[in-house]
User: Fold this.
Amino acid sequence: MKRLRWVSSVLSILPTVVTVLAVSAQAHAQSALPRHTPYPGGVAVVKIGEADAPSSEVMFDGKRVLTLHQSGGWFALVGLALDTQPGKKILNIKTGESPPKPAYDTAFDVKPKAYPVQHLKISSRFMQPTADDLKRIEREQMVIDRAKKHWSDEAPSNLVLDLPAHGRLSARFGLRRVLNGEERSPHAGLDVAVGTGTPLRAAARGRVINTADYFYSGKTVFVDHGQGFITLYIHMSRIDVTEGDSVERGAVLGLSGATGRVTGPHLHWAVLLNGAYVDPELFLK
Ligand SMILES: [Zn+2]
Assistant:
């Protein structure tokens, strides 16, 4: 009788224990900050306030920056484009206090980083686009630039991303590219060697903000994860989502392929923070 009562009292507290564990696991997942990698293509993690401070609006280079609340304080996660010049950089901070306080600046340092060089041969149509191609490229660039600058207020559910498909990492982020002997823009994403028709999965929960078939990137999907944290899925053979769709982590967005400027089928996966392409591998577990 005594033992039975003990068992039932243990059982009655069990749901509480399970709830507490679930909550702390969630809190832990949300608190995973990327490593402070203050170099071109990296992410500067800058403390902007104590934990009890109100939220604030942070700008870098004229763009809103993702902010995150942690037990240790408030942090800004600043994406640093590959063409960022090393040296002292300024964040402009406007606190949400009322009455409002004047905005203030905080500085951080960007260090240089040398990326390896890669030589590639590609079809001449992509090296010398026709007049019609150029008109199309210009039109598309405006749409792409708008999608890259997309801002939504909701904070990302998680900063840890899953690789959208499994395969050999065939070209890392940041490679300086020489196409048919000419130096072109560096590689602003991560290539995963997957054959045509491989399902590509959302790297985290988010909303589809743009899908199209572009001249250079082929069939492309943009997923917004919140506050300028955006993932791109490029060179797809088929797109299974439409603009405005909410997607869960792991949801199939479509299939891999070889559309756009490619040398063969693969996934080009890119990550944006405040409009800057950053190394996707910084967000993988
Ligand atoms: Zn690529």
Notes: The domain at 117-283 is CATH 2.70.70.10 (Glucose Permease (Domain IIA)). The chain has two domains: 43-110, 117-283.
